[in-house]
Specification:
This protein is about 35% helix and about 20% strand. It is α/β, with parallel strands linked by helices.
């Protein structure tokens, strides 16, 4: 995957978000960590209006979905504020699906790519390698 210079890379799962910026060039990306974002998980998905049952997500899944909605909200805000010009999202498949429900049109316009993998526990070098191969 081509990672333009200054692209923000969001690596997320249902409980954690790591933000990086490509300080290298497109051919040789070099990810540098950005400050942690304060993510609110108050915005739960449609499952939050229902009690947990076999047909509805359990409380931990609702919390993860709420966290994903909070990530999308934070990324939308940064895009709308002009702080993100290019964005790549790397997230666990279920988290990525929940994130997509909350993308603003402006975020979709700057989205360079998505990778459906859980890489939150991996090193920066691993993330760079997987992105380069994607």
């Amino acid at each position: 995957m081509n990672i333009p210079e200054n692209t923000v890379v969001a690596v997320a799962d249902g409980e954690k978000l790591n933000l990086f910026r490509n300080t290298g060039d497109a051919a040789t990306p070099q990810l540098s960590a950005l400050a942690d974002a304060d993510i609110s998980s108050d915005n739960k998905g449609s499952g939050s209006r229902h009690q947990s049952s076999s047909a509805n997500p359990d409380d931990s899944q609702q919390n993860e979905d709420g966290f994903a909605a909070g990530i999308a909200s934070e990324l939308n805000k940064r895009v709308l504020d002009g702080k993100i010009d290019n964005l790549i999202i790397v997230a666990a498949p279920r988290t990525l699906g929940e994130l997509r429900k909350h993308y603003h049109k402006a975020l979709s316009a700057v989205l360079v790519g998505e990778v459906a993998k859980d890489l939150t526990g991996h090193s920066v070098a691993d993330v760079e390698k997987i992105l380069a191969a994607a």
